[in-house]
Amino acid sequence: MRFLFKTDYEDDIKLFPHSGYYVSYGILLAFLLIAPFVLSSYLVSQLVFVCIYATVGVGLMILTGFTGQASLGHAAFLAIGAYTAAYLQQYNVPFPVYFLAGGLLTGVVGALVGFPALRLTGIYLVIATISFAFIVEEVLARWESVTHGNEGMRVKTLSLFGQAVPQNGPTFYYLCLAVLVLTIVGTLNLLRSPTGRAFVAIRDSETAARSMGVNVSLYKVKSFAISAGITGLAGVLFAHKLSFISPEMFTLQLSIEFIIVILIGGTFSLHGAVLGAIFLVMIDPFLTYLKDDMPGIIAGLAATFGADSITANKIHANAAAIASANGLKGAIYGVIIVLFVLFEPLGLYGRWLKIKLFFQLFPLYKRATFKRQKIYVKSERNR
Amino acid sequence: MLDFVQQLVSGIALGCVYGLIALGFVLVYKATEVVNFAQGDLMMLGGFFAFTFIGMLGLNYWLGFAGAVAAMAAFGMLAERVVVRPILGYPQFSIIMATIGLGYFLRSVVGMIWGTDDFKIETPFSEGVLRIGSLVLAYDKLSVIAATIILCALLYLFFNRTTLGTAMRASSENMLAAYYMGIPVKRVVSIVWAISAAVATAAGVLLAPITFIHSNVGLVLGLKAFPAAVLGGFGSIPGAVVGGVLIGVIESMAGFYLPQGWKDVAPYIVLLVVLLLKPEGLFGVHTRKKV
């Protein structure tokens, strides 16, 4: 195993602590760059969604994961970004301008939400963000002169420096990938700056942070603004990817999906946002696959274990009926969330860390290393 | 003026509906500091149980009502045992997520078993109206108002006057200390989930003639009841009902006097304003953290 000998603060905040990182991230980047040429167009399209969801995940991670402020209203920020893009595009504003404008406007709105959120914690903050999202949804549906109400808005094909970038082509994928990578690098840099340290301090203990001289209100508002701004940028890409947006796309359901992204990925690291996005987006093709092939597999298994052909057929039919039942997806979603909360609270990235540590420490790995502390004493009401 | 009174009364009736669901939120929160996002879905499931007993098996209304309440109390205990107990003591947010997951699961399973149509239960209150002067009130709405008042009073007395209620309040303040004092915390939590599922079922059955029963009714009403609970100050039983009535009255007034669209948003705007001015809700108790 590798021991990192740190002699300097600079060593501690390096983005790439040792050379192994260059190799592994290099390979990952190379794979992502050749992906459009080797994967089917459907998978590339899913990868674009992964990039967009991961960008939102990074934004939400700053707020929820690092500042400790829960939000169930991020669909609204995504909507503001998307509608800004669609609106400005009508006036032939070039892409880079409305891309940044979308992020900026959403960031300002995020800061405006951040101010009332200052005094709220826990459940009150959750309900306040839900309320905000409902209000935005309703405004989008009613402000017809700008948003065309429930009819929705068409988003024209993206054009970058005079070149058309169709939303299914590889260029659009590279664009989304670039935005994701830049967001991640920017966020990593933010997190190792005093601002990021202040966020983490607020998450761990607001009182302690305040007594160390951290201006809690200022940094909470900053966190809201940055998180919302990143989500707004993702919203611009989201609008282009779907090429049509309407208010009913940006519901509470979508906000919950974003929370699922960071929850399943692991709420303590940016890796989690990406892993969670991969999981959430790729579960759809996986479920379709299950629907098509699972009955056959189950019936085959039954036949191997001695069931006669009539029973096997029955099993096949039953499995097919269950697999194609309406709303199965919801049930699977629900079970996945509950299972993750119960058994893998650190998410996919936590699992990865555990496996890595297991091999690093091979015979000496202790399961209790990652055990969470249960707190029965302190009431969250007294925060 | 008559319009105003009529709107006020129907707003109060609607608000009692929200209050009834909000009571379930508050119960669980008061006793365990857990926010149960699946409360609306428990209500929906209770409605479906009652529909099965009354509509499909043809039981007497009151018998079916009691059966549904008993079945749901058992289900509430089961849900607590499987989903909530393993994560008690962890940050509130993980429990919120777990109950959101439970809600997803219940909605989708109910949709698979009973289908996605609207169902109706024949009740003794389904028809008929009460007339006071030129004011008209349907019996089904009156039954909701009456049930809300009765349940609220019962639960208030239960929490403040009985030993079990005191034990629940104690375990909510500090589970560990309560345990040291000889309170069987696990059983207390289990009982409180049973009670809250039973209250939810009562709400579901009483609402059946008004909103019908379908697999999404819990989500829709739960999202209105939730602001009601917050408005009243999470953890206050009278607060839940007052919050519910406020939300109901605001909604029905906004629907009548303001342009279209305000009806759905007005409760949330009021909620945000109240939270801005009084972050712990109208009846909440503000406490400072000791370091």
TrEMBL record, chain A:
Cellular localisation: Cell membrane
Any one of the GO CC terms: plasma membrane
Membrane topology type: Multi-pass membrane protein
Molecular function GO labels: branched-chain amino acid transmembrane transporter activity
Record carries keyword Transmembrane helix: yes
Spans through the membrane: 20-40, 47-66, 95-115, 121-140, 172-191, 224-244, 256-283, 331-350
Keywords: Cell membrane, Membrane, Transmembrane, Transmembrane helix
Keyword flag GTP-binding: no
InterPro entries the UniProt entry points to: ABC_transp_permease, LivM-like
PANTHER family to which the protein is assigned, alphabetical: HIGH-AFFINITY BRANCHED-CHAIN AMINO ACID TRANSPORT SYSTEM PERMEASE, HIGH-AFFINITY BRANCHED-CHAIN AMINO ACID TRANSPORT SYSTEM PERMEASE PROTEIN LIVM
Protein's UniProt name: ABC transporter permease
From TrEMBL, chain B:
Compartment(s): Cell membrane
Claim: Cell membrane is one of the keywords in the record: yes
Origin superkingdom: Bacteria
Alphabetical keyword list: Amino-acid transport, Cell membrane, Membrane, Transmembrane, Transmembrane helix, Transport
Residues annotated as transmembrane: 12-29, 41-59, 95-116, 136-159, 191-213, 225-258
Molecular function, one GO term: transmembrane transporter activity
Membrane topology term: Multi-pass membrane protein
One biological process term in Gene Ontology: amino acid transport
CDD domains referenced in this protein's UniProt entry, alphabetically: TM_PBP1_LivH_like (cd06582)
PANTHER family recorded: ABC TRANSPORTER PERMEASE PROTEIN (PTHR11795:SF451), BRANCHED-CHAIN AMINO ACID TRANSPORT SYSTEM PERMEASE PROTEIN LIVH (PTHR11795)
Name of the molecule in the record: ABC transporter permease
Species: Bradyrhizobium lablabi
